[in-house]
């Protein structure tokens, strides 16, 4: 089989695959299918135009055709970025730009061997980009990605070998080039391997998405009860030997039923989502925040001592208190009560922590709401607040203002009393 026939066969396969990908994009509207489909369509049409050299103007079969082939590689790279849910970076256009820039040089534009070298060097850059995207990503390690990168690596080295053969042989036309088998045979293998690996990556992403949905609260976007418990066991396994402590902080929005009754359930959903954002932002990479159910939330966080755990709970509570939530034309003042339990990471038991935090939360509620209680070995103590006394619609009673230094001192006394 000569190289022109091989290019036409490849063009037919690429365009066929593009049609299938466009069909899937039409029904699912996933941008990656549009990028991959466009990549195969542009690449295949470009290869067909190259094969038609002599029957169509040289400008079309050389400049435009090779630009399309290299642009297709960039679109494949863009699709991989979208597969990883990353924004498409402008550098995906580099392979095509290398070709366009080289064609402004007269010695390159007028010599077939120089054009062939330029094209394959640009293709190598594109393949290197794809390998980098596959290997360097934020997700967990994947055998499929490494195999996919190896498959693309075959095409990379095939192009490098062609560059070497063209440089030494200096052919003056495509049909006269002795490197034909090194072009279409690896391409055929890479084509099949890429389809298999690409399909496997899509399957893995779907599985990961389903797992995330199973552990994520659909309304607020934070973890659900199952996700929180999984994070507890993961955190305990990772940090059991570093001497840290695990704090379980349980939150319950005060008077939430009244919010639903007065403002409607949509307003209630907005309040839940707003509090979830506040709680998640307070973790700062040290723990996990999630919704246990209804208006109850929880945080599982690594801390050094009780003071740190109480400070985090108080930061979340006071932030919510001081920032009414805008719902349509209403600004709803919302407060939250918190209960804290604490244990060394090595000895932590989720059932014990849950029970202790629930008891502390009950004390917070019965003591006037809008406050934090800590469960110690001996008793449950209310954390002194730095808030100014200011009645809210859902706070049963205000309490006195305490300075930050007084609060820290009081927290330390709580620690001493609990030892």
TrEMBL record:
Spell out the coiled coil positions from the record.
none
- EC numbers listed for it are 2.7.7.65
Q: Which Gene3D superfamilies match?
A: 3.30.70.270
Q: Which CDD domains match?
A: GGDEF
Q: Which InterPro entries match?
A: Diguanylate_Cyclase (IPR050469), GGDEF_dom (IPR000160), Nucleotide_cyclase (IPR029787), Rev_trsase/Diguanyl_cyclase (IPR043128)
Q: Which reaction does it catalyse?
A: 2 GTP = 3',3'-c-di-GMP + 2 diphosphate
Superkingdom classification of source: Bacteria
Q: Where are the transmembrane segments?
A: 6-26, 33-52, 64-81, 88-105, 117-136, 148-169, 181-202
Keywords of the record, alphabetical order, are: Membrane, Transmembrane, Transmembrane helix
Can the keyword Ligase be found in this entry's annotation? no
**An example molecular function term from Gene Ontology annotations:** diguanylate cyclase activity
Q: Which residues form the GGDEF domain?
A: 244-377
Q: Which SUPFAM superfamilies match?
A: Nucleotide cyclase
Task: Name the Pfam families on file.
Answer: GGDEF (PF00990)
Q: Is S-adenosyl-L-methionine set as a keyword in this record?
A: no
Q: What is this protein called?
A: diguanylate cyclase
Q: Which organism is it from?
A: Rhizobium soli
Query: The organism's lineage?
Result: Bacteria, Pseudomonadati, Pseudomonadota, Alphaproteobacteria, Hyphomicrobiales
């Amino acid at each position: 089989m000569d190289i022109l026939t091989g290019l036409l066969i490849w063009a037919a396969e690429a365009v066929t695959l593009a049609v299938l990908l466009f069909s899937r994009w039409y029904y699912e509207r996933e941008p990656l299918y549009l990028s991959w489909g466009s990549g195969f369509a542009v690449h295949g049409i470009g290869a067909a135009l190259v094969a038609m050299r002599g029957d169509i103007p040289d400008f079309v079969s050389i400049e435009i055709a090779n630009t399309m082939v290299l642009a297709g590689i960039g679109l494949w790279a863009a699709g991989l970025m979208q597969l990883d849910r990353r924004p498409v970076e402008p550098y995906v256009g580099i392979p095509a730009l290398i070709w366009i820039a080289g064609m402004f040089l007269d010695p390159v534009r007028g010599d077939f061997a120089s054009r062939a070298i330029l094209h394959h060097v640009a293709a190598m850059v594109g393949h290197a980009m794809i390998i980098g995207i596959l290997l360097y990503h934020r997700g967990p390690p994947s055998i499929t990605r490494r195999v996919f990168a190896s498959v693309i690596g075959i095409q990379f080295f095939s192009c490098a070998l062609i560059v070497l053969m063209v440089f030494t042989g200096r052919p003056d036309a495509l049909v006269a080039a002795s490197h034909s088998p090194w072009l279409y045979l690896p391409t055929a293998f890479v084509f099949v391997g890429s389809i298999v690996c690409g399909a496997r990556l899509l399957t893995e992403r779907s599985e990961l998405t389903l797992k995330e949905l199973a552990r994520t609260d659909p309304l607020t976007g934070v973890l659900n009860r199952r996700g929180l418990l999984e994070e507890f066991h993961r955190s305990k396994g990772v940090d059991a030997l570093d001497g840290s402590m695990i704090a379980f902080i349980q939150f319950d929005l005060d008077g939430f039923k009244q919010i639903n009754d007065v403002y409607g359930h949509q307003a209630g959903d907005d309040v839940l989502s707003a509090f979830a954002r506040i709680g998640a932002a307070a973790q700062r990479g040290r723990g996990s925040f999630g919704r246990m159910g209804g208006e109850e939330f929880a945080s599982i966080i690594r801390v050094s001592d009780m003071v740190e755990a109480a400070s985090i709970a108080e930061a979340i509570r006071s932030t919510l208190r001081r920032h009414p939530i805008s719902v349509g034309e209403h600004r709803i003042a919302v407060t939250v009560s918190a209960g804290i339990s604490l244990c060394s990471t090595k000895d932590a038991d989720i059932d014990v922590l849950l029970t202790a935090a629930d008891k502390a939360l009950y004390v917070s509620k019965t003591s006037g709401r809008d406050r934090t209680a800590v469960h110690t070995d001996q008793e449950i103590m209310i954390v002194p607040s730095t808030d100014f006394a200011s009645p809210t619609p859902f706070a049963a009673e205000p309490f006195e203002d305490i300075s930050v230094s007084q609060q820290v001192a009081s927290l330390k006394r709580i620690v001493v009393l609990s030892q």
